[in-house]
Amino acid sequence: MEHIIDLDRYPLHRPQSAAWHALVHHAKSGLARDGLFNLEGFMQPQALADVLGDVHPRMAVESFHHRRAHNIYFKDAVDGLAPDHPALKKVETANHTLCHDQMRGTALDEIYQWPEFATFLAAVMDKAQLYTMDDALAGLNVLEYRPGEALNWHFDRSIFTTTLLLQEASHGGLFEYAKDLRRDDDPNHAGIAELLAGRIAPTTLAQSAGTLNVFLGVNTAHRVSTVGPGTSRIVSVLSHYDTPGCAFTADEQMGFFGRVA
After folding, report:
1. What is the model's pTM?
2. Which of 45, 142, 208, 261 has the most crowded Cβ, counting Cβ within 10 A?
3. 229 lies in a domain?
4. How many domains are there within the chain?
């Protein structure tokens, strides 16, 4: 894996070594402090260039163009809120998606399937073990946000999200978040309404291509801002779960990817 991951900086291949434990501690500290951590330069430059060489032509002709209007909850209704409540304000998300079966044999696929990668994430998340998805489409995705497109405000369903930035946008396309905007015991609908109205300034996360990011997004609202003219933003999402055999339903596959495996 040394040709794909900078193992000198990030020794995932030496679990339980002193350097590995130091890296796990660094990652846990970031999650506790900021709700996220970054490993800049995680992917080797040539491996990154090779992946983009695979992604660009496929995106041009094979990607699924996903566009939808939604509220921050991705739900039609929320208990206790009137349909016109400002916390249910509609926003729009649009992107182009490649699925795992289109990325087989690439460096991204090698990272995703590498047991030591899951072992590292499990240690950071205090899980006994993490598993790749048993889904031909959903486990590894590559998302492109072209000029005028964005991933709009939302909360995640999964406890953590793992991404690897492949290409920075020339303008816009920035990851923004409002940490702990709600709690398990406090939905904070008023605060969400303030965010959607633009009266809460989110934190902007600066990232460079090749950076691995792990983010806790269940109670932290987040988005990718609208991409401006020029280069698009391209990011891969690598999904792990603490139970084996996880997969999307056929309806979910159709909704997210425009096809069923």
Report:
1. 0.96
2. 142
3. yes
4. 1
Domain harbouring 183, CATH code: 2.60.120.620
pLDDT 10s digit of each residue in the chain, 261 long?
A: 999 999 999 999 999 999 999 999 999 999 999 999 999 999 999 999 999 999 999 999 999 999 999 999 999 899 889 999 999 999 999 999 999 999 999 999 999 999 999 999 999 999 999 999 999 999 999 999 999 999 999 999 899 999 999 999 999 999 999 999 999 999 999 999 999 999 999 999 989 999 999 999 999 999 999 999 999 999 999 999 999 999 999 999 999 999 998
Token pair of 109 as six digits: 């696929």
Q: Which domain holds residue 88?
A: 18-257
